[in-house]
Amino acid sequence: MECIEVEGGASLRGTVQLSGSKNASLPMLCAALLAQGDHVFRSVPRLRDIASTLKLLRHLGCRSEVVQSTQSDVINLSVGDVLGAEAPYELVCEMRASVLVLGPLLARLGRAKVSLPGGCAIGTRPIDQHLKGLEALGARVQLHHGYVDCEAPGGRLRGGDVCFDMVTVTGTENLLAAATLAEGRTRLLNAAREPEVVALATMLKAMGARISGEGTSEIVIEGVEALQAASYEVPPDRIEAGTYMVAAALTGGDLTLEDAPLAQLEALTSALRKAGAAVEALGPSRCRVTRSGPLRPVSLTTAPYPEFATDMQAQWMVLMTQARGESTISERIFENRFMHVPELGRLGAQLSVDGDTATVTGPTPLEGAVVTATDLRASACLVLAGLVAHGVTRIRRVYHLDRGYDDLVGKLNGVGARLRRVRE
Ligand code: EPU
Predict the structure, then answer these.
(1) At 119, is the pLDDT very low, low, confident or very high (cuts 50, 70, 90)?
(2) What pLDDT is attached to residue 125?
(3) φ and ψ of 239, to 5 deg
(4) Which residues, in sequence order, are CB contacts of 89 under 8 Å at separation 6+?
(5) Ligand 1 pocket: which of 116, 125, 302, 311 to mutate (most atoms <8 Å of CB)?
(6) In angstroms, what CA-CA distances link 78 with 41, 42, 152, 173, 388?
(7) What is the pTM of this model?
(8) From atom 13 of ligand 1, which residue's Cα is the shortest distance away?
């Protein structure tokens, strides 16, 4: 098994080129199923989750070609007129986001059978809202033998009102994609406002879909008869950007980030400034993060966009271990997203958890140790902790990192960190 060793103590300085967004690419690739033809995706990040998605799309009958360029990949995806309608357990269990083929398949073929994704390290993560929404568009939904089997009577979904009980990102994306080919008008109420939903809507519009209101909590879709393949640009990854911003503040460094979507990072930027870091916009997609003074404690609560992202919670916790005083972090999106707390404790952090709130007392000098990553963002948090820990931190199960961070080791080493991959 591969692990990453981090030798702590370096302050990060230099420029990091950020990659395309994982959580935008995944729904975009799946939405290509909606239209026959040759789709082109640019600025696709090099990630295991992308490889898993392409594997699933090939299983469904698509052909894919990955063209490597210096910074990112171009993916040519050919979607035929005949598609498979079934996403099997072996492929879905590799990646929960596989459920994003459900809406596009059902809309295009009039039926879809997708394995239930099951729970994961950060919570139970049901898909009841996706199914309730598809039912509101007329689908007959049955669950048996671990699969969700959906059928659109007469072969076509029909528009309707979908009101989500909670904000769900992939739920909104599944319904948005499904509604593009439904007959008539669909309204998605209490829709997710995340930039990744907007990226999907932009792609669907390039394919000929009629959508308005993306980026607000009410999205309106006027269904069309058919969509066409087109070319798309994957937007930059706001969570990757945020992770490097925290790394700069944590190590008392000076990082310039290229292609950082600063406008999507207001909650993080404001928290970083309160904590004592300087965040400077150098243009619409470039920023510089520095810190010279001491870190101050800042308490926060995760919530749907535009509030503080749950995907930045673990990284923020590391930063707070180095701030003078007590801070709290409340996790309101997932019920079990504090798996990194005991691992940080092994490095010497002073943390306690009560329900959905963690309390961090700092500053505590961290000491390198062997730690185990439990999910993607927890892995990133442990790498960050390793950057400021004395000695060497060995992080096990780093395949989680490869799911969602494009060349994290190379990018961090490029700005002065000391990381290496080793085999255990
Ligand atoms: N939920 C339900 N029923 C549903 C759908 C969601 O109860 O049908 C609950 C979830 O269990 C959770 C909350 O609603 O408690 C929000 O979940 P959401 O559906 O928004 O999460 P997701 O769409 O499965 C995406 C990202 C996650 C990110 C969350 C929240 C992708 C592929 N994944 O997940 O990203 O944390 O939104 O912003 O877009 C990551 O990148 O590390 C990651 C986990």
Answers:
(1) low
(2) 81
(3) -80, -35
(4) 115, 146, 147
(5) 125
(6) 11, 15, 25, 21, 46
(7) 0.98
(8) 333
